[in-house]
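Throughout our pipeline, every protein is held as a single compact record rather than as scattered files. The record that follows is passed on verbatim for readers who wish to inspect the format.
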Amino acid sequence: MFNSLSGRFLILTTVFVFLAEVLIFVPSVARYREDYLLSRLERAQIASLTLLAADMIDADLEEELLRNAGVFNIVLRRDEARQLILSAPMPVPVSQTYDMRDAPAMLLIRDALSRLVTPEREMIRVIGTPVQDAGLVIEATMDSAPLRAAMIDYGLRILALSAIISIFTATLLFLAVRVLLVKPITGVVEHMQSYAAAPEDARRIIQPSASVRELREAEEALQSMQTQLTASLRQRERLAQLGEAVAKVSHDLRNILTSAQLFTDRIEQSEDPAVRRMAPKLVNSIRRAVSLCESTLAFGRADEPAPKLTILSLSHVVDDVFQSERLAVGDYDLTFVDEVPPMLDVRGDPEQLYRALGNLVRNARQVIMGTGKPGTITISAREDDANWIICVRDNGPGFPPKARENLFKAFAGGARKGGTGLGLTIVQELIRGHGGSVDLVETGEEGTVFEISLPKGALISQV
């Protein structure tokens, strides 16, 4: 119990309330001492007035008056004359004198604490002002022992009452915390445990119901996190299934393409000039398809190969990309512009750069052809001291807002209806493998611009 939130609230509340009562205890005891002494002075004044009214009383009556007043002698000053009214033998001499006329609070507190910590019996003289203007000053001598005993008794009653109030207050707070905090928190914990058992089950996502604002905000944040996690797990499962299917298809396709490579020698020996001119392109296409299938199988084994870096002519790679895309364009009015400097060499993997640029150009070509309007796709390049920068520009309609938010996320960043969004994800992974980056520089009605940055340094990050 005491390790729980409500149990600790119970203990802390009891302690804090008790401390507050203790702070009140000191001035309360000082006030009680003041009232005690003033009451003794009032009794002494009544006894003195009795004597003054009777002129003469016997010794027994005088002793009774002093005993009822709780004092040993009474001195009353009237008309500037100090007169001993009543007196009795004192067991010990007077050791302390207290003037109760306009005594400051701190002095009263100090005297009260001093009396509590002084167990020795003493005779004290108390000076005060008579009530109802019955004189100028009244003095009474009394024993300190009854005063101290009364103060201790009062203090114990105050402490007992403080303890009862503390426990009662703490119990109420304990019940309130149980209802308002602990029970809702326990419900959230149970939801979390239930969700952890089957995070793919959307029915286990928490539904905010707390009336306390802070708890409801926590529930809403937990609901958002669980919703995103469930969606991510479902997408991951779909990707795993898709990866398994692609790996199987790639395995069989690789075997088919390997057989197709065996026929390329005969095609190259053809006497037809058009066939001889297209044969190298066909051979390169088949070789790239086999390489892609092998890479897909490697990816299915979570073993993406590092790029094989070499110095290559970027213009040759761009020319191969444009040649492949021109075949897909046919008679459509789409222009490919190569603005790469012919002598510009870059460091990279030729196959991976071909795939990266091919995906960007293919995306641009499909978007432009989807509009039914003429278009232009331009690849340019430049370099600085640290990087080679490749720019792919088109005059298409640009990316919609939703696609911009999930640009490089698989199955989420497609720019056209029916697109998977895998193209840009592949581009990003390939360029990151070179230690570079790919960024969307601008997009809109005037077109879209992507920039690929390849570092000139030798450090290459692995994906």
